[in-house]
Amino acid sequence: MKGQNKLFIAIIIALIVGVAIGGFVHIQYPESAKPFAANIKLLGTVFIRLVQMIIAPLVFTTLVVGIAKMSDIKMIGRVGSKAMLWFISASLISLFIGLILVNWLEPGHVTKLPIQDVASADELLKSSKGFSMEDFVKHIIPKSIFEAFATNEVLQIVVFSIMFGVALANLGDEYSQPVIKLFDIIAHAILKMVGYIMWFAPLGVLGAIAAVVATNGFEIFKVYAIYLRDFFFAIAVLWLVLLIVGYLILGNRLFELLRRIKSPLLIAFSTTSSEAVFPKLVEELERFGCNNRVVSFILPLGYSFNLDGSMMYMTFASIFIAQIYGIEMTVGQQITMLLVLMLTSKGIAGVPRASLVIIVATCSMFGIPPEGIALILPIDHFCDMARSMTNVLGNALATSAVSKWEGQLDNHGGDM
């Protein structure tokens, strides 16, 4: 744990230094802020790309090994059913919390934001055009596993891995064991790489934070204070609900889990990428005592189906935009929107600004001016910090809970 504490402290220091450097550039050299941000942001880009480099092979090998080792198809079905029960329940609760709190707090009614140039939203608007059920199906089922690997389409990789793992489990030991052993070795080799990559995290955090503060300055916090206050309050409520449920299932071991995942939580918060901590989260959950087969099966699924922070944010932001434009939505319309978001939000992990694309598509469906997304673009980075961290917490709890229900949670920590 000494190494983990050193990494945690290094990330905290990088976070503070990044804010200080960004603020200094914004105040002293405002004319140089954009080129400075573009250059220092490369530190964050390098870190994210290092992690993205190992996401696809890690998801594929761990999920295939996890399913193939189960060998019992009934066990796969049982574990999968428990996981999906958690995912659907957590998603609905997250959406409802966002819906209830945005209607109660009404940040769009009390905040007077200038209508910004919608040019900043053009790219998102183009990305959302033509969204349909056909696109959703295409996003789930890969036409080529190599294309899915090349583009890091987590959900498509999960679909292929599950089918491949089930087929491997039914081949018999003579054929399956050599393949399982090979993939197991590859997975652990990639996890070894995680240890090296994570020591680049402080530089990545420094670059990402310094860039956004240098560009927007500290004023960004004042202009959007009410929206940020209400959103972070909603996130706190969601955390409270998740932690209460976690305590009911895990008891006092919940606090041990939180100590284990503190670095992944902080990295997700700082880099706004829950994908960036996937390999580290696999490692820490196994050390916490979760069965490696369950971790290998549940966590990749969670990254496609269990994005609690993103789910809550999508209802919160969509209704906020409606409030800004004075559009009153009936309870029925809002419930319908919730169900639409429940369906369209699956498989968005690892897709940059995917939450915003889904919000734009949803607003268009319900007669809310999609250009309103431009209102929240300047502070989306800070909201993304909270929702990314919440996604990590939700998936850690889901994996730990299913391990406990399966009687596969080791009290003394798991072997790597």
From TrEMBL:
<dbReference type="Pfam" id="PF00375">
    <property type="entry name" value="SDF"/>
</dbReference>
<keyword id="KW-0472">Membrane</keyword>
<dbReference type="InterPro" id="IPR036458">
    <property type="entry name" value="Na:dicarbo_symporter_sf"/>
</dbReference>
<feature type="transmembrane region" description="Helical">
    <location>
        <begin position="7"/>
        <end position="27"/>
    </location>
</feature>
<feature type="transmembrane region" description="Helical">
    <location>
        <begin position="319"/>
        <end position="344"/>
    </location>
</feature>
<feature type="transmembrane region" description="Helical">
    <location>
        <begin position="356"/>
        <end position="379"/>
    </location>
</feature>
<feature type="transmembrane region" description="Helical">
    <location>
        <begin position="83"/>
        <end position="105"/>
    </location>
</feature>
<feature type="transmembrane region" description="Helical">
    <location>
        <begin position="226"/>
        <end position="250"/>
    </location>
</feature>
<feature type="transmembrane region" description="Helical">
    <location>
        <begin position="154"/>
        <end position="172"/>
    </location>
</feature>
<keyword id="KW-0813">Transport</keyword>
<keyword id="KW-1133">Transmembrane helix</keyword>
<feature type="transmembrane region" description="Helical">
    <location>
        <begin position="193"/>
        <end position="214"/>
    </location>
</feature>
<protein>
    <submittedName>
        <fullName>Cation:dicarboxylase symporter family transporter</fullName>
    </submittedName>
</protein>
<feature type="transmembrane region" description="Helical">
    <location>
        <begin position="47"/>
        <end position="71"/>
    </location>
</feature>
<keyword id="KW-1003">Cell membrane</keyword>
<keyword id="KW-0812">Transmembrane</keyword>
<dbReference type="InterPro" id="IPR001991">
    <property type="entry name" value="Na-dicarboxylate_symporter"/>
</dbReference>
